[in-house]
Amino acid sequence: MTHVEPLAPESITDPELRELIARCEQLGVPDALFPRILAHVPAYAKAVLRAMLMSHAEGNVDHRLKEIVRVQLARFAGDPYFSRLRSRRALEAGLDEAAIDAGSGDYDDDPRFTEAEKLALRYADQMYLDPGKVDAAFYGELKKHYSEAQIMELGAFIALHYGMQVFMRTLGATPPGARRG
Amino acid sequence: MATAPEKIDAAFYVELRRHYSEEEIVELGAFIGFNVGYHTFFGTLKFYPMFAPDGRLVSQEESARIYGAAPVSLAAAESA
Fold it and tell me: Is it the case that residue B75 has pLDDT exceeding 60?
């Protein structure tokens, strides 16, 4: 039970919102629970879900890397709901739990990650842990591996998903069939 | 939500319901979440308002002098 009750699926009649919720369920992040809570404010729900799906599943940064970053952030936010969800698309593309856990751990010494991937993980890691370290020199390092468009894609993805994870944490939600966090 | 999310518990939501509808609570929560996420990101990009308080279009350097070199969100995080 969450602190704000999700709407019953049959009470959500806006076709655009229903289609977005179906896309969320198909991807697996978020599942239907978060959208059904947001659905109390349909216009907000549509804007937020569209942005979440676009920032996570579209663009020019590897979706598997974004999924590792997303779980790292959710664990940092202390949100069991988003921590336990997994992108089906990322899993189908070969992402496994060992890589997800490694991204939340001592990734700097992990040979499975490229220098570019380590930098993306550090971008998310430092953004809310120690944002003063995400300075001009750090952006200079990012530009050696990513285009400006990719950096904005990563930064906006990190900001949006972290913000929604912090919000969901306060709602006290856990997903059904909980995976490990 | 930003500094002590563990304090936003069931009792806190009951308090919120005394003043706000369910719709307003979701609207506020999503809005705050947006701001928690984005203001820190924006702070790392070091950009400042384009206009001075008196409405003049100003350079980024002048804007930094007017509004402060360190965004409040970063200053708070650094002093924590």
Answer: no
Q: Is A137 on the interface with B (CB under 8 A)?
A: no
pTM (two decimals) = 0.91
Chain B residues with CB inside 8 Å of A162's CB? 36-37
Q: What average pLDDT does the segment A19-32 reach?
A: 97
The reply to whether ipTM tops 0.85 is: yes
Instruction: Name chain A contacts of B44, Cβ cutoff 8 Å.
Output: 127, 131, 134-135, 138-139, 155
Is A170 in the B-facing interface, judged by CB distances under 8 Å?
A: yes
Write the DSSP assignment of chain A as a string of letters: --SSPPPPGGG---HHHHHHHHHHHHH-SS-SHHHHHHTTSHHHHHHHHHHHHHHHHSSSS-HHHHHHHHHHHHHHHT-HHHHH---HHHHHTT--HHHHHHHTS-GGG-TTS-HHHHHHHHHHHHHHH-GGGSSHHHHHHHHHHS-HHHHHHHHHHHHHHHHHHHHHHHHT---SS----
Contact A5 B22 (CB under 8 A): yes
